[in-house]
Amino acid sequence: MKDLSQPPHLSHQFKPAKMPSYVITGAARGIGFEFVNQLSAVSENIVFALVRSKATANKLTELGRPNVHIFEADITDNNALKSAAAKVSQITGNSLDYLINNAALVKSERDALTLSSYPSEELLTKDLMDSFNVNVISVIHTINIFLPLLQNGKAKKVVTITSGSGDLDVTMATEFVISAPYSISKAAVNMVNAKYAAQYKSEGFVFLALSPGLVDTGTRPPAEELEHFMAMIEKFKKVYPNFKGPITPEESVQMQLKVINEITVNKTGAFISHKGDKEWL
Predict the structure, then answer these.
(1) What molecular function terms (GO) are annotated for this protein (predicted)?
(2) How far is CA 189 from CA 125, 159, 176, 182, 205, in A?
């Protein structure tokens, strides 16, 4: 029998839902910026854009949207990440719904080299270590630092932007031999995603390694590398004969957000593309 001696909790009954909150790393340009742009276009969302320097985040500033908060935080700087997390906590009331790990390192000036064609052992070691530090270790630290806020969130979704170049089967099928440090680091971060997914599935978390496709971000490889790049595209076409060329950041993010919104805890740990499957291009 209902206890009528206690007053009804009307304030709880009519309490408005919290605004969905997003943290996006590497948000100054390219895919990261487009995530901010599309998510912040919905006024109910609150978006935290993490950038290495506000001085180079002009596009974000020019959005002029009150639901976008820009914080300086290089993902290799744990203190900066902790400071950003503290600011997010103050604004959201100690919670976070979505973390999108977009920041990454690509050594484009040596992207055409293979593991055996580096001019020196020292340079190869440096590129491997730098790629692993940014694309793997820093992603782990970012997740750990924001994890307490995510545990208080509703969505509990952690998305790490990865690459189809981290797929072993596709590497063999396409003979994709260049961009080795980047590809190796992306294969490693796919395992990071799986480790977190296995650990936090029981808490309702969704960890997703998501490839954005081949995206035209407005940058071009150096002239001496363009020939290698085009040759690799031709090899990819043998596996993906319907591939028409790079897509825009706008197209990629639209497709990625559809995947992010639709994925459930039953698919946590997945490594999939912007198409929701293993079709990387």
Answers:
(1) oxidoreductase activity, acting on the CH-OH group of donors, NAD or NADP as acceptor
(2) 18, 11, 19, 11, 17
Confidence (pLDDT) at 218: 72
Q: Write out the two tokens for 235.
A: 């090899």
Q: In Å, how far from its chain's centre is CA 155?
A: 16
Contact 82, 141 (CB under 8 A): no
Domain 17-273, CATH class in plain words: alpha beta
Mind telling me the catalytic residues?
163, 182, 186
d(Cα 193, Cα 207) in Å, to the nearest integer?
A: 6
Q: What is the DSSP string of 231-246?
A: HHHHHHHHH-TT---P
pTM over 0.70: yes
- The predicted-structure confidence for 31-83, as pLDDT tens digits, reads as follows 999 999 999 999 999 999 999 999 999 999 999 999 999 999 999 999 999 99
How many helices (H) and strands (E) the chain has is answered by 10, 7
Q: What parts of the chain have a pLDDT lower than 70?
A: 1-17, 219-229
Q: What is the pLDDT of residue 225?
A: 54
Q: C-alpha distances in angstroms, 158 versus 29, 42, 96, 171, 184? A: 20, 20, 10, 26, 21
Residue spans per domain, the chain? 17-273
Query: In the beta sheet, which residues pair with residue 22?
Result: 47, 98
**Residue linked to tokens 């920041």:** 103
Q: In this structure, which long-range contacts are made by residues 164-171, counting pairs with CB atoms below 8 Å and at least 24 apart in sequence?
A: 164/211, 164/213, 164/273, 164/280, 164/281, 166/190, 166/271, 167/271, 167/278, 167/280, 170/239, 170/280
Q: Output the pLDDT for position 228.
A: 63
